[in-house]
Structures are given as C-alpha cells and as structure tokens.
Amino acid sequence: MTTFASSLIDTIRLVIGPGEIGLHEPIIGEAERQAVDSCLRSGYVSSVGQWVVDFERLLAGTTGAKYSVALSSGTSALHMALVASGVRPGDEVLVPAMSFVATASAVRHAGAIPHFVDISESSLGVDPNSLETYLSGSTEKTPQGLKNKTTGNHITAVVPMHCFGHPVEMVRLLDVAEEFALIVIEDAAEGLGSQLGGTHVGTFGRAGVLSFNGNKIVTTGGGGAVITDDEELAKRVRHLSTTAKIPHPWEFDHDEVGFNYRMPNVNAAIGVAQLQQIQEFAASKRALAGAYSDALAGFAGVSLFVEPEGARSNYWLNTLILDDDTSHHRDTILDEAQKEGLQLRPAWKLLPELSPYQHHPQAPLPTAKNLQRRIMNIPSSAFLGPAGLERS
Ligand SMILES: *Cc1c(COP(=O)(O)O)cnc(C)c1O
C-alpha cells in the first residue's frame, strides 16, 4: 500500500539512491590523512602549532573576519564570545526557542539566563519583527540598560542562530539590537559558507561562532571558533581560553580564572584540509538541494525550505516543511525511514520545553511551536545527489 510516508521516502530515494544513508556525514580523504600524518610527525599535536595558525588564517579568509580564534568546540566558542563581549552573570540573553541546546547551555556557562524568543517562517531563525514588538512591550530602557519588566534583570545580548545554514535577517536584526542596546553574538555554528548580501554570516555582530563538529559542513573532528573584527575581543578570547596564562618564556602566571578551550594542532590539521574544499562541498550541497527541490516539486503536502531572499545558504541540512494538515504524518515518516536505514530527523524540541529551561523567561512562541512539529531534515552529505563528491 502506498502511504504518504512511503511515497515521500521513495521520492527522497530518487535523489540519493538506496542503502543506509546518514543525515550528514563528513568526507575525509587523502588530504586530511596527509595533514594529520604530517602533524603527528612534527610532534606538535596539542594546542600550539603551525596548523592552528594556518587554520585561523584560512578561516579569516573564508569568512572575511579580521580575527579568528580556533577553540575546542562550538559550545566553548559561544561561551567565550559571550564572556568576552561583556555578558555578565545574572544578565538575560535572548536566544531563539528553536536551536541546538548548546546555544542555551553556553549562556548558562557564562552565568547568564537564556530568555527565549520566537523565530521567523522565512529564515527559521530569530524574527526581528516579533522581537521588536515583544521588547517594546515587556522591557524598560533605563540608564543602566534594558530591563525586563517582569524579572527585573538586565537583557544585554541577543544570539541569532543561522538555522540549518540559512541566514537570519541580520540587517533588520542589527537595527532592533541597536534600538534596545543589545550586543549581537551570532551562533553561526551551522553557517560556514553562508552569506547574506555578500557578507558572511558570523561577521554582522560583535562576534560570530562556528562549529567544526563531525556533522557540520567542515569538520576538525571536534572544534569551534570565534570570529570577529574586534581586536580586543579576539585577544580576550585567546587569553581566557588559554588558561588566562600571561605569556612568558618559562614562568607560570595566570591573571584570572581561565579555560582550557584551545583547538589541538592535530584537529586544526584536519580543518586546514577540509577548509580548502569548502567551495566543492558547498557546490555539491547546492546541487543536492536543487535536485530535492525538483523531485518534490509535484509532491502535495510538503515543501523544501529554500534560502531566504538576498541570502546564499550553504544548505548544510536540507529541510522539509510539512503542511499543517500533513504534519500528523511526521512520526510515521521518521519511523519508516529509520527502519530502512535512512536517517531523517525532526527539529529540536523547543529549548524552553527542556527540563533545565522550563522556568526561564520566554516570549510568545507561535511560529516556533507551529514549525517545530512540521520540520524534518533529510540526508545532506556532500557525497549525495547529482554532483555528489567522491566519498574518500
Ligand atoms: C553544532 C552546534 C553548536 C555547538 O557546536 P559543538 O561544536 O558541537 O559544541 C552550537 N549551536 C548550534 C546551532 C549548532 O548546530
């Protein structure tokens, strides 16, 4: 019997073929193996070394940021970016209700309080318009900064997250941030290679954060980075993440409580080889998105999410949005796909529904609540589709 679920899965299979297929898997080839081998032979495997320097330089070149600091994960990079840009313990930080949990946990690591806001149907990220309306009604501008009328806390920053690689409406968001004197830290963990009006995501705000986890478009095994044009901020991230050690030829002196968050050289070696292929990865993923779009064009009840106006997305993950009246099929689709080795995934559970965040402040979340049950991500590795790259 053909059901909605089985014909949707068949349509996906038309694009990517049979067999076990993961949601997003890296391509690790000869270049990565050679770089790691050379790093191992050098003996510098830990958090100093030429590969880290080269990786940071390449990253600045790729994103157009003046400075980049390579760190151990996207989560640690978010933590450092928040602290270095002046978010203090007890502050509230505006975070999209629909994001990977790290966006909220990093705010808590900084001692601040995530305050959840709604997303936009056109970007899947923070909606600047509903944010403006919400802040106008629920906050008070004081000489000490923006005050939450309900909690009495200061709201000092907003963390737009470029969801599945699609840029948030940053120009409008920067306007709203300016109106309410908010620091902007971009969670661009999923957005390497994505641009808005020719500007790379992560370079609109005070700082941007990238992740190089194994499932991202470029991987270092595990890793992250802070990118910024602010030299002082970059220096502060470097210092804090290097145990706050005062540079000295032999003395151990540390001038505050620091973190051990730097990226090891051996991970940076993988990253250099990966980053040199970002254009190829992005081109293949764009072709895959085009093929999914063609295959699904006549399929009623579901649409493929396309990059917002003026944006060039990296299409890190391809996203299906079920119609309101087909969304009840979601779990059946996920189950059936799982049974035949096809990895589909729903959107994250909304952050304010997770037990650590249930009692945190939140705006009305109509769009996040509606989209959350309609979204499904489908296999998106760069070796799939009409321009699929060789796997290794
Ligand atoms: C992957 C990811 C992170 C965290 O990155 P890690 O390197 O896994 O710590 C943060 N935010 C978002 C939106 C992510 O997708």
Instruction: Label the structural class.
Output: alpha/beta
Mean pLDDT: 97
Count of individual beta strands: 16
Mind telling me the C-alpha Rg?
21 Å
Largest sheet: 7 strands, mixed
Strand content: 15-25%
What hetero molecules are bound to the protein chains?
A: pyridoxal-5'-phosphate
As residue ranges, the low-confidence spans are none
Oligomeric organization of the protein chains: single chain
Give the SSE string.
Answer: HHHEHEHEHEEEHEEEEEHHHEEEHEHE
Distance between the termini: 38 Å
Estimated helix fraction: 25-40%
Shape: globular
Record the strand order, biggest sheet: 1-11-10-7-6-2-3
How large is the count of helical segments?
Answer: 12
What would you say about this model in short?
With 392 residues, the chain is of the alpha/beta class.
Keyphrases for this structure?
392 residues, alpha/beta, seven-stranded mixed sheet, four-stranded antiparallel sheet, 12 helices, 16 strands, 35% helix, globular, binds pyridoxal-5'-phosphate
